[in-house]
Amino acid sequence: MSRRAASVLIAATLFAGTLVGCSTDREPAGWADPPAPQLTASTPPAASPSPAIAAGSAPEGAFAVGVRQLKLNRDDNRPLPVTIWYPASGRTGGEPVDSAEGADGEFPVVMFSHGLGGRPTDYAALLTRWASAGFVVAAPRFPNTSGRGDDNNVLDVLNQPADVSYALTRVLALDGRDGDPLRGRLAADRVAAAGHSAGAVTTIGLFTAGRDERLAAGIVFAGTALGVGTAFAGASAPQLFVHGEADEVVQYSAGKAVYDKVPWPKAMLSLPDGDHGRALLRDDEGTSLRVVADTTIEFLRWTLYGDAAAKERIPTVSARGGIATLDNHL
Predict the structure, then answer these.
(1) For an engineered disulfide with 70, which of 82, 104, 148, 292 has Cβ 3.0 to 4.6 Å away?
(2) Domains of the chain with CATH codes
(3) pLDDT tens-digit readout, 17-27
């Protein structure tokens, strides 16, 4: 499929109801055709193949959470402010603390991509849980898909895998920066990518046309492969798909079709009553969020810490409350 044809399909399909960051309750904005952007190849920096994750154990218990901002700009014309949540020293259970001292240890990194019209903070309820469990979560705000009105450019999603690879390089560099709260605390050989909606398209792209070989695992929330394809490439990287069967924006069947193409260890968490985002990431009663958070945390513990016991817990935590089913090929 040509780049132009892929762009037309993305615009037509993703904006049928607008592919929004549905962790909030705002209504979708209308679509006005933007000028066609100059699409750039999502080519990550040169990197060695993703190393096998040695067997180990994930941290027990919870950490306090710190939060900070990193101002980036790719090619001087793509501003990419990054919100970073990370395990911090101090008392657990409170709100994230700005620029808190990092907890002792080396922690895997998860790159998270927001949905169209979304912001990293829309997903804080989930991402802070990941940080509390022992992961550094870095979430770029993309320049052309984070608007709250009608100023989003859906076609720019095709440029976002390269944005994530660039941001990952800069985040990992903090490990060697004198005086940085994350100095000596990043496990550069244990990295995953995750994303919701348009951010899920971005994430799939990081394992297909824009393969970043530093990535050892992926989590796809309500995703489709339009524009980035299903030619999964590179070293084996386990994938966890999460999709609501009542998704009103990206049909469940579209996500399942991509999942079926994954050639690596994989699982799909399906929520029969789940919509495009609210019931997946921030439902009012919290039941779905707890199941999604617990399942994704155990998946990350297994794939990034090498924790075999966490892998064995995935079917159990995914079944809590009877609100989800798990197709498990991990």
Answers:
(1) 82
(2) 3-19+58-329 (3.40.50.1820)
(3) 444 444 333 32
